[in-house]
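Write out this protein's structure.
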Amino acid sequence: MTNRKNRYTKLIEDIFDQNYREDAEEVAFKRDDLVKTAEKFGIKLPKNLGDVVYSFRYRANLPASIRQRAPAGLEWVIRPMGQANYQFSLASMPRIIPNSLLVETKIPDATPGIIARYAFNVAISDEKHYRLVPPEQLTDEDLANYRDRVKSPQRSE
């Protein structure tokens, strides 16, 4: 398995490295920096340039090389700072940690009986999924198996 970085990671790491100063709490950059960095590395930019920033704000973690430069208890986040301007900022992130002393609450199966009775608990890989198979392709044996299951469904616990 290769440890190759994707293009978004290369762009965001280089922009952070170019603008970061030791002990900085904020690192500003512009959307144009994405274009300049892409040209520097010969990276093909996405059609939606904002997706690079958006992906690290909402979908993916910042690269480890950036996260490691945050002091203990803080994390780097990307914030918008006006039109086409952004900023890496240090922020404390709330972490919800389950209390191991609390008792686990089991939730009983509340499936209505009529649903449970007619639900198919059979792996699709083992059986034909009758709703997806055109009727003309079903054999008499398939139909008989289907009728048997409807009459006496097996419920797995």
